[in-house]
Write a structure and sequence with these properties.
By secondary structure, the chain is an alpha+beta fold. Helices cover 38% and strands 18% of the residues. The longest helix has 16 residues. The two termini are 26 Å apart.
C-alpha cells in the first residue's frame, strides 16, 4: 500500500519501496507469506507515475533521489535472476517467501 501527498510531493511507499539502511542500497523486503513480484513491479511503476520528489519507505525516512532508489530496487527485486543475498529479510526468510511465490505461480 502506498499513498501520495501532492501538496509536498511525498510518496509514502511502505514495503513497495523496499528499505535503505543507514545510507546503504535500496533492498527488497521479501519475507513470507505472500510475495507477488509482478504486482510489486507494477506498484513501483504506479508510484513513479505519481512523480514524487521524495519517498518515505519503511524503516528509512525520507529519500529524495526517487528515480535512483527505484532503479536500484528494480534491479534487486527477485525474479528470473534471483539475487537472494541482496534482500533485506535475510537469506532464509527470503528463500521461504520466494519459494512460496514460485510454487503458487507454477500451479
Amino acid at each position: 500500500m502506498a499513498y501520495y501527498e501532492a501538496a509536498t510531493g511525498t510518496a509514502w511507499v511502505g514495503d513497495v519501496g523496499g528499505i535503505r539502511i543507514e545510507g546503504g542500497p535500496a533492498l527488497p523486503v521479501t519475507p513470507p507469506p505472500d510475495i507477488d513480484v509482478e504486482g510489486w513491479k507494477s506498484s513501483i511503476e504506479r508510484v513513479m507515475a505519481w512523480g514524487p520528489v521524495r519517498i518515505v519507505a519503511t524503516h528509512v525516512g525520507a529519500f529524495g533521489d526517487v528515480a535512483a532508489h527505484f532503479a536500484e530496487l528494480r534491479h534487486r527485486v527477485p525474479g528470473d535472476h534471483v539475487r537472494l543475498y541482496e534482500t533485506a529479510s535475510g537469506f532464509r526468510d527470503s528463500w521461504w517467501g520466494l519459494a512460496r511465490y514460485w510454487r503458487k505461480r507454477a500451479q
